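The protein record reproduced below.
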Amino acid sequence: MLWIAATLIAAAAQTARNAMQSSLTATLGTAGATQVRFLYGFPFSLLFLAIVFMATGVSVPAPRPAFLLYTIMGALAQIGATALMLAAMQARSFSVAIAFTKTEPVQVAVFGLLLLGDALTWLRALAIVVATLGVFLIAVKPGDQWDRQNLKPALYGIVSGSLFALAAVGFRGGILALGEAPWFMRATTTLVWSLGLQALLLGAWMTLFDRGALMGSFRQWRSSLFAGGMGSFASQCWFVGMSLTSAANVRTLGLVEVVFAQVVSRRVFRQQVSARELAGLILVVAGVLMLLAGL
């Protein structure tokens, strides 16, 4: 049951990271705020790996071809997913943007079954559907005009969810590909490789094409450091969860992030929660409880 605690902590930490990244988007742009997650998160992942090594004495496992393939897939998918999520946040409210990305668990279940053979029981599949319906109640409101202006952030969020799903399955595959190493070392090693690849690739791209945003993140290093640190900590907890159970279980339980996002929207961004959104939150919580009951 350790994966449950790890996932809940990850969801809370990711909500804090998303709120900070959402604020940074206004000054750094989408690419700049995306890069903060990886460049400033990478040193923290090295720190986590050093702590695990010193505390346990377990050797860091060597990368295998399958590990590199899965991890590169996850790293690239997560870069695209984060950029699209931040673009959706700019176009609509923080909580609604998060809600659209949370179509992810259904897609994780499909990708996990196809790529990793992670099967689901009927109760767990129903839990995913119920929680996802709750997400749609939060995201889609009566009277919404789905013209190009409103449809664009919705598509950003849904495609972001697809890429987050591929990222979760890729990272789960990388963790499994490290073989016989203990779960905590496999999780932390995968985190270091993924953040290292992401920082390198996105940093190189921004050096060539968006140097102003890159320099801006250095000037706002305090806010960037907090966002990167919280993101790295959240990813560490996600990876711990995915080293112990399927990605679909972890990402479904992670839907509690929608509840946390509503709290942030109300307290930080002063956005009101409607009765419809409250009903959606109840469905999300019900789906999560069904998931836990089916374990």
Q: What stands out?
A: The chain has one domain: 2-293.
